[in-house]
Amino acid sequence: MTEAIHLASWNVNSLRVRLEQVLEWLQASKIDILALQETKLTDDLFPVDAFENIGFHVVFSGQKTYNGMAIASRMPIQEVVTDLEDYIDPQRRILAATIAGIRLINLYVPNGAAVGTDKYDYKLTWLSKVTSFIEKQLLDYPLVAVVGDFNIAPEDRDVYDIKTWSGGVLVSPQEREAFAKLLSIGLKDSFRQFSQAEDIFSWWDYRTAAFRGNRGLRIDHILLNERLSATCLESKIDIEPRRVERPSDHAPVMVRFTKD
DNA sequence: ATGGTGGTCTTACCA
Question: Global pTM?
Answer without folding.
Answer: 0.97
